[in-house]
Amino acid sequence: MKKEYILIAILIVVIIAFSILIVNVGQTSQDEPKNISSREIIANNSDEPGTVEVIRNIGNPNGKRIAYVIGVHPLENQTHQTLLKLLPTFSNLNNSYDIYIINVTQGVGHYGDGSSDNSPGRQNGQNLAYRYVYPAIVNGSYDLAVDIHSNVGAYEYKTFVFSPIKEGMASQYAMEVSKNSPDISYYSPSSTTSGPYLTIPLNENGIPAFYYEEYSFYPQDVKDAHMNELISAVDRLSF
FRET partner for 155 with CA separation of 20 to 30 A, picked from 30, 120, 216, 217? Predict the structure, then answer.
């Protein structure tokens, strides 16, 4: 009889362990972003003020290749994280997307506070973009690049797209995105500090590149809604 109790106890332990394993596997599969093929670090030099990594192949591997860039200005982190959160959740995308992530670690200031940004981290992010992201996109056979930013409301519009190169496909693509997005305007500021480090040289080397600007102080649900509009409109572009 004692032997039977031991066998029953062992059986109960096995059943419980198996149940826990099933739950954990289910939770892991839910927590992992969908549609991501790989994530790799492309810059991790101790001499640099940060790192650069890329998430590759979100969406349709047979579609046009489009690059999103986040982290050029580190204090605009909340909008960067909004793209990173939402893009992998889209299903039935027409195109293949890579997200280049600049992680500034020196002179950052306070992430996501939306304050006026004169921190050294701003220039550090721009330098990382020019040294690593720009050549990777130029050599990556991309059809488009979108640089994600946010602002504190100093512009005429709060949520908008634009290309620093007024003539060319980038401006046309940005205008088309605005046309198909109820809450995203097309508005071109008189200047941009990060343009010479990424979007301008990309355009000059045959890769159409434009900006997306979001208002820093919108509630997160509004940022989510606007980002969903951007992702959907970009995915509907004709190349």
Answer: 120
Fold entry, domain 39-235: Aminopeptidase (3.40.630)
CB 96 within 8 A of CB 61: yes
Residue 162: Cβ-neighbour burial (10 angstroms; 0-12, 13-18, 19+): buried
8-state DSSP, 33: P
pLDDT string in tens for the chain (239-residue length): 455 555 555 555 444 444 443 334 333 333 444 555 689 999 998 899 999 999 999 999 999 999 999 999 999 999 999 999 999 999 999 999 999 999 999 988 765 555 555 678 999 999 999 999 999 999 999 999 999 999 999 899 999 999 999 889 999 999 999 999 999 999 999 888 999 999 999 999 999 999 999 999 999 999 999 999 999 999 999 99
